[in-house]
Amino acid sequence: MASTAPLSYSSYHTYAECPLRWKFLYVDRLPETPRGYFTFGRVVHTVLEDLVRPFLVPGARRTAVGEAQRTLDEWHAGGAAPSEVRPMTSEELLAAYDRAWLSEGYTSPEEEARYKALGRDLLLRYYKRFVKEPPSPVAVEEHLEARWDGIPIHGYIDRIDRTDDGGLEIVDYKTSRELSGEDARASEQLSIYQVLVESNYTEPVEGLTLYHLRSLTPHRVPPRPREELEVLHERLGTVLDGIRTEAFEPTPGRHCGRCDFQSRCPEFRAVPATDEARLMQLVDRFDALRQQERQVGEDLRRTADELHRAAEQFGVHRIPGSSHVALRRREETWQYPAERLRPVLESAGLADRVANGDPAQVRGILRDASVDPEVRRRLAEAGARKVTWYWDLEDV
What we know:
Distance between the termini: 56 Å
Number of helices: 12
Strand content: 15-25%
Low-confidence stretches: 64-81
Strand order of the largest sheet: 3-4-5-6-7
Structural class: alpha+beta
Radius of gyration: 33 Å
CATH architecture of the largest domain: Alpha-Beta Complex
Number of strands: 10
Largest sheet: 5 strands, mixed
Order of helices and strands: HHHEEHHEEEHHEEHHEEHHHE
CATH class of the largest domain: Alpha Beta
Mean pLDDT: 90
């Protein structure tokens, strides 16, 4: 059985997108090709952590999941109050950026140079705003774990700030090219972070923010309501069930274009050259048979229709052949359109006895002597009988 380690947002999203790719990454531990934009994002996050960490303020953490005892996090090393902290200078910021820089994943020296220049500009503009309005972070790059109604989850949260009202705001930095308020409203990552913070902190979550670093735009949205979180919990449960049962079939889609494992995936893996000619003949044969199948199906329908017309013309249900007798059979079904059925059921207080117009359940009410006869009559009139004729064969 596959591992059921705590789900991160990345793990959950990967499985939901393609279970086989999840297996390659989390079970087989296959490495992915480094990509410059991922490397760039990690470097920027590292420098922002160095910038923000000295400003940490105490936060109320639970001593354990489910306990309400409040404990204060340790003050940042040195014990200085946040108001006395001196932020690093812009020169120190750029020096930290140079130290953190990684060259992994860039397709050319020119691309690396463009990204590095972008990072310098982005960090300097962020720094100017930061020193004017420093936040009150309770945590920076915080790793949190929780058990969400039986589902283990975890995540690394970029920043948790204390709000003016004493609550908490979750902040996730994004270095992507474009970002909108709708992205923040739809972010399942922020939803998981909300559950993690609510499970580990005593203060309430009052806001969720995707911070777009390129435009210095914080896209703030309210915390998720319970019903929205319940939908996500169901999706996480479906993913966890798939992992537990080792359901690792590939799911082809647009994401395949950026997958490093196409050579291992049955959707893309080439057949061995030694068997290519034989398999090509099998495919051609299958194609020919499929076309014959379609033709036979059309001939079968036309022949059955002619027999039906003859049976109606001569008033017979048995037509002999040379080796078999064709027997005309009748199948009867009842249908109850929702627009006709629903008013009758609701007026009689019987709506909970019928799911989606199920004919068997309706027929059960029609046979129920405890139901008002007038209600049963109206239910019967709401139905429509459908008769289907078909042919069977019998030996002569």
